[in-house]
Structures are given as C-alpha cells and as structure tokens.
Write a sequence for this structure.
C-alpha cells in the first residue's frame, strides 16, 4: 500500500475554522485526521503540503517510520508548527492502518481500557459571552448576569453533564466580557499582573456556577497564560472554597507550575501547549501538575500515548485538549481508551448546528459520557460535501 495524495479541507465552524487532512492510498483506503490551524499565525496547512512530497509513495501502515523520518527532517526546528503538521499526517496514517486491519485505532495500542469516557462541558458560558449574537442565533440564551450563570449551571445538569469548565467572565461593564489576558491584544497583555477585582470576579463566577450546578458537579477554571506566578498563586488560593477539580493554567517553566501547585490545595492542570515527549518530561520530573493535558492533533496519537505512559510513571493522570470538531473528539476518545491514566475528556458543547454534519458518524454522548468508538479506524469519515457547503470565512 502506498500514499498517493494528501489534501486539506476547511470548514466554517462559527467562531473558528475546522481543518481536515485526507490521505489517499493506491488501494482505495482513505485516512482522515483533524488538525489545528487557528493557533498563532497559522501555517500548518502549508507545511502539510511540503511534507506531501516526502511521504507520497511511502506505506502509510509504517506509521512510526513516517513520523520519525519527518521529525528527522525538522530536527533543527523541532516542535511548533512542524510538529503539528507531522502529527496530522501521523494521525491520518493511523486511521488507514486500523482500517486495513479492520480494528478501531485504540486497538493498535492495546485498548480499550474502558468503553465510556466522562466528558466535561468546555468553555461553559465563555463563547456565549464573547459572541452573543452568534450563539443567540443558534438558540442559546444570552448571558447578561450572574443569574444567567446560575441558570447555565442548571442547564449543564439538566443535559446530563457532571462536569464543566469555564473561563473568567467579568460583569463590570455594559456587557459581560470574557477575560483573554495573556495572549490577546488587551489591556494587561504585557504585565499580566494580579488584580483584586479580577480575582473577586472569578470567585463570584465560580460561586454562581456552584450554586446553579450543585455540589456534585466537577468545576474547573481555565486561566490560560493570563497571569505570572504571583497572580496564579493568588488565584489558586482564592478559589479553594469552590473545590475545583482543577485550576488550568499555562506556563512554559516547570518550576513555576510546581511552585503554584505547592502554594495551594487546588489541583493544577496544564501542558496543552507542549509538543513531544521531551517537552513534557521536566514538568513531570518537577511534579508540576496534577493532570497533564495532551493535545492529540498537535502531538499525534502515537506520541500522545508515549506522553501518557511517561505521566503514568509519575502517577499523573492525563486529559486530552479537545478544542475542535467531531473528528478530533473521536481521535481524542481513542487516546483516552488506549491509556490507563485517563482523567476526563474535554468536549465543546456550545457549537454550530452543522458541526455533526461534517462527519459520517458523530460522537455519541450519553449522560455526560462519550461512548468509545468501536468501528474500524477513527469510526467516522469526513463528509466532504458538508465541509464544502460551509467554506471558512477566512484562513
């Protein structure tokens, strides 16, 4: 079997663009993967196009050989967009290999360890606040106050979810706003200093969610890169009364994360922005996180399983970063099914109504749990007609 072509496709998903890689072979089998093009300045699609000249003619079932060959070619610029392009190709090859064998991808790694995966409602309320007109058009209630947050917490429970994650939302102006400090052109971009009012707003938000969702729903708060170590430590202490499943923060220094983790009883999740096993190792060695977050589209499932194995050696659980569409959710589900140290899976619940049309078989979610796919490959094909019916607004 030989690779004959790589093709990228893109679909509008309202507040982001979903990107897919189609890998064709001379035996008629097609492998798919979903990848991220919306972080940073982009460029993954162009790198995939350059890699196509290298992998065309290679056997897609030799997944490790293909990945190692491409990594060797990019060793002087390891990580980043190069790694993400290689991961997209690796993931499509895994889809082909599993289909050729007639097994689900997780079976290639000894799975499944489990057949149901607890999921959490990610960005709960966040994008309803950032893009109120868009989501109101999709029938989502507009959020104007903390009372609406309490109602959203009740909605989470009513729809069967046992866990939610939100971002800081401030109600200090004529309209609520999502806090994006740290990597967007906003006030405080450079300083990222702690603010007593901001910390108070975060605790008020968590109190409202806790009141609406009740005491038994897992509650998480994602700060991204919004603070430096002083701010992270202050927030971690301030949110202790709300019994968070985790406080999610991003930092490129393992000792910083370890210090924050030791400063409070609040569990810390992080590492979604890392590429490759070597980047994760110092964070585990420093015992910097309670939960290591792994992005399967960024790292490739082959490398993601290796990262989870390393985490397991340090008694650390892992959770997938799943900010994407349905194919990526299926890919992450195979990851979760293939490892022993799974914690919980991220899922975007607030989304465009045509999201499920983009794949032949959408993920099945029952009572806050995703069913592990059992069909060959990822368990779904990309619906090319539906993708082309929703061209991206811009790339």
């Amino acid at each position: 079997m030989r690779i004959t072509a790589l093709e990228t496709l893109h679909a509008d998903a309202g507040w982001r663009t979903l990107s897919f890689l189609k890998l064709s072979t001379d035996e008629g089998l097609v492998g798919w993967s979903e990848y991220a093009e919306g972080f940073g300045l982009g460029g993954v699609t162009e790198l995939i196009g350059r890699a196509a000249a290298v992998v065309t003619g290679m056997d897609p079932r030799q997944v490790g050989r293909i990945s190692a060959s491409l990594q060797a070619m990019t060793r002087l610029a390891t990580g980043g967009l190069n790694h993400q392009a290689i991961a997209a190709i690796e993931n499509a090859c895994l889809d082909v290999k599993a289909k050729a064998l007639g097994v689900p991808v997780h079976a290639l790694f000894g799975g499944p360890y489990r057949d149901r995966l607890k999921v959490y409602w990610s960005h709960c309320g966040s994008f309803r606040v950032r893009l109120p007109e868009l989501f109101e058009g999709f029938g989502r209630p507009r959020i104007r106050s903390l009372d609406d947050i309490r109602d959203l917490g009740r909605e989470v429970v009513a729809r069967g979810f046992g866990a939610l994650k939100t971002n800081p939302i401030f109600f200090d102006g004529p309209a609520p706003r999502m806090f994006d400090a740290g990597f967007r052109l906003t006030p405080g971009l450079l300083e990222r200093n702690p603010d007593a009012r901001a910390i108070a707003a975060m605790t008020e938000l968590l109190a409202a969610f806790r009141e609406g969702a009740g005491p038994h729903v897992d509650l998480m708060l994602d700060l991204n890169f919004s603070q430096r170590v002083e701010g992270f430590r202050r927030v971690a202490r301030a949110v202790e009364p709300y019994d968070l499943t985790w406080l999610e923060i991003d930092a490129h220094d393992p000792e910083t994360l370890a210090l924050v983790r030791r400063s409070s009883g609040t569990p810390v999740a992080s590492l979604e922005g890392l590429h490759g096993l070597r980047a994760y190792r110092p964070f585990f060695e420093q015992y910097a996180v309670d939960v290591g977050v792994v992005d399967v589209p960024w790292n490739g499932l082959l490398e993601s399983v290796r990262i989870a194995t390393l985490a397991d050696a340090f008694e650390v659980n892992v959770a997938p970063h799943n900010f994407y569409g349905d194919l990526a959710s299926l890919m992450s589900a195979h990851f979760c099914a293939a490892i022993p140290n799974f914690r919980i899976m991220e899922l975007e619940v607030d989304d465009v109504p045509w999201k499920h049309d983009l794949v032949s078989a959408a993920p099945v979610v029952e009572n806050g749990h995703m069913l592990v796919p059992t069909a060959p490959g990822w368990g779904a094909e990309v619906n090319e007609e539906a993708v082309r019916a929703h061209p991206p607004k811009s790339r």
